[in-house]
Design a protein that fits this description.
By secondary structure, the protein is of the alpha+beta class. It has helices at about 1-5, 30-45, 45-55, 60-75, 95-100, and strands at about 10-20, 80-90. Strands 1-2 form a two-stranded antiparallel ribbon. The longest helix has 16 residues, at about 30-45. The chain is flat, with a radius of gyration of 21 Å.
Length: about 110
């Protein structure tokens, strides 16, 4: 991911990998709050998260509904410590003087 961003001309490219909790099980207060928001987001529209994959796998509508019922139940279970891995990449646009140096046309 970083190489593609650098190739696009960005500078000071940085990345970090996180384990984002799903639910309020984390001990750290910030992660606990983040986990609650993540769970609420998933609970508000679980169909949106799985319909593409389920259709690609050829599931019937009844199978999808059963899966969604199980997913909702598991998301409410405080004994399950679910998380997902998240990669965050950020960079800075180069200065206008640097753009001329590497051959970019500066538009005003």
């Amino acid at each position: 991911m970083c190489a593609a961003i650098e190739t696009a001309g960005f500078v000071d490219v940085q990345e970090t990998n996180l384990k984002t909790p799903i639910g309020g099980w984390a001990k750290d207060p910030q992660l606990k709050e983040l986990g609650e928001y993540t769970r609420l987001s998933l609970m508000s529209d679980p169909e949106g998260y799985i319909l593409f994959l389920a259709n690609a796998m050829g599931w019937k509508r009844e199978e999808i509904n059963v899966y969604l019922a199980h997913l909702r139940r598991e998301l409410k279970n405080p004994k399950i410590h679910a998380y997902y891995r998240q990669k965050i990449v950020w960079a800075r646009k180069p200065e206008a003087c640097c753009l001329r140096h590497v051959g970019y046309r500066v538009m005003r």
